[in-house]
Amino acid sequence: MKITASDHETTVTARGTHGPAVVLVHSLGLDRRMWDPVLDRLAEGRRVFAYDVRGHGSAAGAPLPFTMAATAADLLAVLDALEVDTAHVAGLSLGGAIAQTAAVAAPGRFASLAVLAAPDRPAPEAFEERARLAETAGMTPLIEPTLERWFTPGALAADTGGVRYARACLASFDPPTWASIWRGYGGLDVYGRLRGFPAPALALAGEADASIPVDGMAAIAGRIGGGGAEFEVVAGAPHIQTLERPDAVADALARFLPAEIDIP
């Protein structure tokens, strides 16, 4: 379905007909299809929604510059458009950063927060380097290094469906938009600001994540909520967990998220 999120239109994929609302926020450079491998499992007793973040997929034409504050407002606007007062929100990588930013701004809209392979503070030098490379040389030199951060060597060698999908997304990405997103990502400002988060929280680390190691995600988990978020490690998972270990990710999220039980 098409909906309005703040100052642009985006597309939402929906699964499930009843139960708690779950909203999924995807990684930088991909789109809502990143969640496809886990949607059916999560939709058992839940209403699940995945949308395109501004600058990505169907929302590629959203106004720039990209800012974290704008993406947080977009997430809340998606909830409004879906007529959802509170939702269980899960985000991966940039999506997790967006979810955290929105949770700082409007914690009362969150029934829970799940952060998958997502930072709580930026790496400005690395982010700026990726922005400048796109501006000066286009997307081509960024594709393989990005895929190497996102996937295991085995998946890259096998050229799996997930790898092919991610490569196509990167190859078609608009370089100025890519640069604006990375610079906006550098404005992430949630470090230590979710210690009072009032709802349940989960942090999922990928055992094989080259971008945010397990120890780093464990530290992030400890900074969410009064007693820290629940913390799990997805065995064998790289940074883009849903495209290599979808069953394990879906199982972990399904254990964490409440569901409406069907009674025969």
Q: How would you sum up this structure, described in words?
A:
There is one protein chain. An eight-stranded mixed β-sheet has the order 1-2-4-3-5-6-7-8, with helices on both faces. The model has no long low-confidence stretch (mean pLDDT 97). It is globular, with a radius of gyration of 17 Å. It is 40% helix and 17% strand. It is an alpha/beta fold and 264 residues long.
Quick summary:
The protein has 264 residues and is α/β, with parallel strands linked by helices. It has 10 helices and 8 strands. The protein has helices spanning 36-42, 68-81, 94-105, 124-137, 140-150, 153-158, 161-171, 175-185, 214-222, 246-256; strands at residues 2-5, 8-15, 21-25, 47-51, 87-92, 110-116, 201-206, 230-234.
Q: Find the structural class using helix and strand composition.
A: alpha/beta
Shape: globular
Low-confidence parts lasting 5 or more residues at pLDDT below 50? Answer: none
User: Distance N terminus to C terminus?
Assistant: 30 Å
Query: Beta-sheet strand percentage?
Result: 15-25%
How much is the average pLDDT? 97
Order of helices and strands: EEEHEHEHEHHHHHEHEH
Q: Helical segment tally?
A: 10
Secondary-structure map:
Elements: E1 2-5, E2 8-15, E3 21-25, H1 36-42, E4 47-51, H2 68-81, E5 87-92, H3 94-105, E6 110-116, H4 124-137, H5 140-150, H6 153-158, H7 161-171, H8 175-185, E7 201-206, H9 214-222, E8 230-234, H10 246-256
Parallel strand pairs: 3-4, 3-5, 5-6, 6-7, 7-8
Antiparallel strand pairs: 1-2, 2-4
